[in-house]
Amino acid sequence: MEERIVKFIAALRAAGVRISLAESEDAFRAIHYLGIKDREMFRLSLQSTLVKDANNLPVYDELFPIFFGGNEMPPMINPSDDLSPDEAQMLAEALRQYNDQLRKLLDKLTNGERLSPEELERLAKMVGLTQMDNLHYREWMVQRMKKALHFREVQEALQELAEILGKLGMDKQRAEQLTQLMQANQQVIEDQLRQFAGQRIAENMSDRPKDEGIDSLLNRPFNALSDRDMERLRKEVQRLAAALKTRVALRQKRAKSGQLDAKATIRANLKHANVPIELKHREHSLKPKLVVICDVSTSMRYCSELMLSLLYHLQDLISKTFAFAFINRLEFITPDLVDRDPHAAVAQVLERMPAGYYNTDLGNSLEDFQREHLGTVDSRTTFIIVGDGRNNYNDPRLDIFNTLAHRTRRTIWINPEAPGLWGSGDSDMLKYAPSCDVVLQANTLAQLTAAVDRLLT
After folding, report:
1. Which residues have a Cβ under 8 Å from the Cβ of 348 and sit 6 or more positions away?
2. Rounded to whole angstroms, how far apart are CA atoms 434 and 431?
3. DSSP for residue 427
4. Quick check: 381 and 411 in contact, CB under 8 A?
5. CB 279: neighbour CB atoms within 10 A?
6. CB–CB of 293/385 below 8 Å?
């Protein structure tokens, strides 16, 4: 129990609650006298010794049940126990109509099984939960795990299942009762995901070093960055951009020549009786023209802001940049970047279109681009999309994207999501990818810097 309390105090500190060593000693002293058998007394004793500011009470109330229980999940129901052999056979036949991924979760709902610890760990690694140490993103992590488990498709399958069972001969009331029990089990699994996300984030908070080195921060996934981490990275971007400038300038110096210039070669060799001793080449211009479209919805905001920051500091290496931001509609933001830094520019854009988790619509934004900004792309343009390819089941407008890809010199997509999540849930990434020249995963500032270096080659 002492180790658990120490971790709890560390998590409170990581969440911004100021707790001195003396106050930690007071908490242990109070527990020594009052004990832990009375849970409410235990909660109040820790609260009174550790929390001095009423503004910190919500954080305390959120972390306490994660570390010391109290939010028990309802039990799973096993609907298959109540099925007759004929009904069990009908259910098995109905489930065979779904693909392996859906059937795996449907089987769990049918048998009343929770996710195993191994399955939860795989999910945590897939969505970046293992690096997350900010409770503000708990619900977002739950949504990402639900997407990875194809929750929406399972819900649609459950709505169809009663009808399929009815066609196979099962009594309508029995079929509806079965699907309702499976829906209740799905809610229990969602609660399990929420509890697991809270526990893992709290553990990460308690284990986080007081001050990580910048190298560690550069390799921290965007979805695991705290506001404090972002402040440090905003300052680091300038140093990274300076290093990139030096690297690209050296490449330009080494790229000695472009195509052979016949006229200049003849003129230069008149003094050699037209013997081509000195070869002249056309100057080889390496400065690209960029059109950048960034998703600034909640899940993508840090990645897009840092991408814009890098490009903002690298303007000397770029002939022209047209920058756009979108959530459910497109905004031209190049003017916003003229007199302010990218962080302030993104904040200004978000005032015009408040961000949310579930309203991203790239298809509609591509329509806006085609209607109002098509003239910004030509055969010299490098066309860049920074986004996760999720459209919330809206029309992805692949026709417009394909047209833009064909008009441009190169089409590059930068996506922070793991490739294993592409195509899952509302992701249209696998539909967009064939039209791209390059698709890069960039889930950290280090990866994003490498991606920018590559597009400037």
Report:
1. 336, 340
2. 7
3. B
4. no
5. 13
6. yes
